Amino acid sequence: MPSEHRERKASDASKSLTAGDDEYAAHLERSRTVWDRWSDWYTLSERDFEPMREDAMDRLELQPGDRILDIGCGPGVNFERLRNEIGPDGELVAVDYSPEMVVKARKRVEEHGWENVEVRRADAARAEFDAPFDEAIATLSMSVMADIRDTAETIYRALTPNSRFVVFDVRPVPDGPTRVFNPVIRRFLQWYANWNPDESVIEALATVFDECAIVATYNGGCTYTSVCEKRNQSTGG
């Protein structure tokens, strides 16, 4: 997607928060509080979502020796599968904003003795990386970002040309009579996960990436996997 077209589309994207705004800072603080709280109970949802997370990771095109970025890694539930794919010569870099999640993710790395897995505490929208990645993944994390579009742009810039970003996430019911429950679903997601109600993950991804498509849906469309492609452009945003 040419940069001028991306800029035109960005002007039509849903409302996003601006770095430095009180609302942005408040969202980050709520995320820290919510995910620190859930860090001790994450294994419950880990079991529920495991088949869908595995399906999302199946969509990656990882090769031994690749460099992979895991956005909003939580306690590291994707690490074993990703590490197996890239092997000992690859590198896995994972980021999360919750200090407690980072502690648990690092403990998982230590217990397995993975020397090529690094966990960083960072706001994914503002994270900086010293080398490009061959692939990226986010499972159940993009929809809770304080600025979803900025996060997508950061990931786009961090990827090598001809690479992909796979997203597994949740949303309100997209169509059909059960949409009547969406107000309740939105309130639950905001309470449970600090879900961002002001931006659509799917719209933000389509704005930033050169190609993006939903490749699988589950639970009546409330959960989905999207595959986004970065083509030959060297920069995004």
Question: What does this protein look like?
Answer:
One of its GO terms (biological process) is methylation. Keywords: Methyltransferase, Transferase. One of its GO terms (molecular function) is methyltransferase activity. With 237 residues, this protein is α/β, with parallel strands linked by helices. It has a single domain (3-230), classed as Rossmann fold (3-Layer(aba) Sandwich). The protein is 41% helix and 22% strand. It contains eight helices and seven strands; from the N terminus they run H-H-H-E-H-E-H-E-E-H-E-H-H-E-E. The chain has a seven-stranded mixed beta sheet with strand order 3-2-1-4-5-7-6, with helices on both faces. Helix 6 links the parallel strand 4 (133-139) and strand 5. The chain is globular, with a radius of gyration of 17 Å. The chain starts with a helix and ends in a 7-residue tail after the last strand. The model is unreliable at 1-18 (pLDDT under 50).
Question: Care to give the gist of this entry?
Answer:
By secondary structure, this protein is α/β, with parallel strands linked by helices. It has a single domain, classed as Rossmann fold.
Number of discrete domains:
1
* CATH class (first level) name: Alpha Beta
CATH fold-level topology:
Rossmann fold
Please report the distance between the alpha carbons of the first and last residues.
11 Å
Q: What does the radius of gyration come to?
A: 17 Å
What would you say the CATH architecture is? 3-Layer(aba) Sandwich
H/E element sequence? HHHEHEHEEHEHHEE
> Ranges with pLDDT <50 over ≥5 residues?
1-18
Query: So what's the overall shape?
Result: globular
Largest sheet properties? 7 strands, mixed
Q: What is the strand arrangement across the widest sheet? A: 3-2-1-4-5-7-6
In the CATH hierarchy, what is the superfamily?
Answer: Vaccinia Virus protein VP39
Mean pLDDT: 84
Beta-strand share of residues: 15-25%
